[in-house]
Amino acid sequence: MREELHRPTIRVLEILECLADKKEGITLTELSTITGYSKSTIFPIIKTLVEHNYAKSDDSLRYTLGFRACVLASAFTNSSQWLSLIHQEMQQIVDNCEEVCQLGVLDGDHVLYIDKVQSKRTVQLISYIGKRLPAEKTALGKTLIANLSEAEILKIFSSNQKNININKLLNGVRFVKEHGYAIDDREVNEETKCYAVALYQHNKPIAALSVSLPFFRDTPETNQKILQQLFETKKQIETAFNAYTGTIELVSR
């Protein structure tokens, strides 16, 4: 029989997740609405998080993650040799393409962004590690979903509460299977285009790698350069993955 989880700890974790999702900050009232907990329940938790620098507040009492939470995230990233290896390759992509490179994993019907290398360009995609987006709208998500059967895709995406165009999703998956990469053509952001490839270990998708850029910079020449760089990097990373006999997990489940 499964033991009951510790409810006070769950409350703390849910509040931290809300802070991570609301980069612009969130009020006590908004936290109460999202979590379903009363403000009197949330206040001592958020006060303790602030005191220990896991959260911080501005003059308008909007709360965001504090620097100690960032330290934990950095420790997680640095603890994995695989994330370190991939990050180096991502930096190479950014150096060559001068656009943002991101790494994501499938988290249910969403994509969780677990690493990012920003370019030095003035106009670029603004995102952050820890962000979650609907998998069916992102290039990262589509290329990871493509490993699933149509029956599995229907089971995951037909049962949720969102209004999803299943035929469009399946067509996107078929494109990935035919061409080896996925495209987000202004689906998440109307001014941004994104290309992604999945990273496999022994025919199992481990994560996906993407390059995002403003739509006005997406010329045929740029498109070709980005895809060439993604496929070359994919080959290098998968060579390392497949030489390893153990199971690779970039995020603990």
Overview of this protein structure:
There is one protein chain. This protein has 253 residues and is of the alpha+beta class. It has two domains: 7-70, Arc Repressor Mutant, subunit A (Orthogonal Bundle), CATH 1.10.10.10; 80-243, 2-Layer Sandwich (Beta-Lactamase), CATH 3.30.450.40. 47% of the residues lie in helices and 20% in strands. It is built from nine helices and eight strands. The protein has helices at residues 7-21, 28-35, 39-51, 67-78, 81-97, 139-145, 150-158, 166-179, 220-243, and strands at residues 55-57, 63-65, 100-107, 110-117, 132-134, 182-185, 192-201, 204-214. The protein has a six-stranded antiparallel β-sheet with strand order 5-4-3-8-7-6, with helices on both faces. A hairpin with a 2-residue loop joins strand 3 and strand 4 (110-117). The longest helix is centred in the C-terminal third of the chain and has 24 residues, at 220-243. The chain is globular and about 55 Å long. The relative contact order is 0.11. The model has no long low-confidence stretch (mean pLDDT 86).
Summarize the structure.
The protein contains nine helices and eight strands. With 253 residues, it is of the alpha+beta class.
Question: Which terms would index this structure?
Answer:
single chain; 253 residues; alpha+beta; Arc Repressor Mutant, subunit A; Beta-Lactamase; 2 domains; six-stranded antiparallel beta sheet; two-stranded antiparallel ribbon; 9 helices; 8 strands; 47% helix; globular
What composes the largest sheet?
Answer: 6 strands, antiparallel
Percent of sequence in beta strands = 15-25%
Radius of gyration: 20 Å
Q: What's the helical proportion of residues?
A: 40-55%
CATH architecture of the largest domain: 2-Layer Sandwich
Q: Tell me, what is the CATH class of the largest domain?
A: Alpha Beta
Number of E-state strands: 8
The chain-level structural class is alpha+beta
CATH topology of the largest domain: Beta-Lactamase
What is the global morphology? globular
- How many structural domains does the protein architecture include? 2
Residue runs with pLDDT of under 50 for 5 or more positions: none
> Can you identify the CATH superfamily of the largest domain?
GAF domain
| SSE arrangement, N to C | HHHEEHHEEEHHHEEEH
Estimate the mean pLDDT confidence: 86
How many alpha or pi helices? Answer: 9
Order of strands in the sheet with most strands: 5-4-3-8-7-6
First-last Cα distance: 21 Å
